[in-house]
């Protein structure tokens, strides 16, 4: 078998990675595969260790078998089955300790155990604590880390936490206060994994690295912007959690608004994390608030999927899902028309939508430019389609630009033409998972693509107004059959402005000529 080849690249700092919730789904599907990919690409220091922590009893050997199983199933790199020595070299960095997070004595034992591990791998006291736990445990675990002596080592200490960051602004503030009693803001890394996706990060380069985009990136040239995050799945085993959250809190407050800030932000004065995050906060603060229930009703749509048939398969409605209240009014679909009230974007509608049981799994941003005048030159005779810039984030990664061009072989017939760059199709490219980049960045102390507290608070302040109106108006819930694109009211949002949702992933664009980067 071929040896593991580690690419020479920027290595993360030597550190101990503590994975709380090491027997959970997130660790299995994302964290262990991400760490292995970083190792395979030479992005981990040789002086690292991973300590898995959970209440369940596991031996070190059983834990390492769990790690191997998760990597074989979910990692983009596969271990060399015929070379046990190479796998053993990686696996020896993994330790496991059963821990009851409610008792501080276990943290003291963990600290002594960690000091032995640090001595074995020559790690200078750098410690990264990844809490793959329920948010209500963040505060107590942080306190026990301090009381147990785990924050007394000579190196740096960083806390990585997953969303949801609270249920509303009040709960988020309470959660933040508990954590801030132990960790400074610059030591807290709040993960929104969408910010780690390759094409989301590429938005900055597309915008600020190309001279023909920046002069056009404003209300003089852009008609509207559409952000779609569609899921084909229902709530699956997350019914209990989802019925308390809904699409607005689960996706709108974080993923959707974060992508909006990346599209709308001003160029930062310096390429440093705080300057970039400053510009994102300015966008959130510029969002036009919904001042009344009438504003919410006119600009926001909430929906819930009902039974439907997709490709011959009958799908249950949301209220028939496991652990969901049969009379639930929780929304599984959220669409809104929002405005960024600053000089760059004044008057440009941003249409955002996300939902479960939609026809296509996709995350896509469509920038629609203003149309050419219809009473000048070609516009007098032809219906010219507007130009589009489409950024595909998931599952296909890439961008395409739609322009108008003369149809070959005709005298003057015009048709839309799409120039497509498919990053996912590039031969030899194995696109990194979001968690790989984010874990590496946290170990390096780069907080650029993590959410700062003022981002979280401002986003909650915006969506809380919507949630409050929905609470008062349960009858505002609309319904859509599973497998459809959501309630018709979401289409009406755009039709009122003379727009329409553009097809995603090239759906129904049979009249467009495609020029693809991967066709030679």
TrEMBL record:
Its EC number is 1.1.1.49. Residues 19-202 form the Glucose-6-phosphate dehydrogenase NAD-binding domain. Substrate binds at residues 193, 197, 231, 250, 356, 361. Pathway: Carbohydrate degradation; pentose phosphate pathway; D-ribulose 5-phosphate from D-glucose 6-phosphate (oxidative stage): step 1/3. InterPro entries: G6P_DH (IPR001282), G6P_DH_AS (IPR019796), G6P_DH_C (IPR022675), G6P_DH_NAD-bd (IPR022674), NAD(P)-bd_dom_sf (IPR036291). The active site is at residue 255. It comes from the Bacteria. The keyword Cell division does not apply. GO terms for molecular function: glucose-6-phosphate dehydrogenase activity. NADP(+) binds at residues 21-28, 55, 100-101, 163. Residues 205-502 form the Glucose-6-phosphate dehydrogenase C-terminal domain. Keywords: Carbohydrate metabolism, Glucose metabolism, NADP, Oxidoreductase. It catalyses: D-glucose 6-phosphate + NADP(+) = 6-phospho-D-glucono-1,5-lactone + NADPH + H(+). Catalyzes the oxidation of glucose 6-phosphate to 6-phosphogluconolactone. Belongs to the glucose-6-phosphate dehydrogenase family. NCBIfam families: zwf. This is Glucose-6-phosphate 1-dehydrogenase. It comes from Paenibacillus shunpengii.
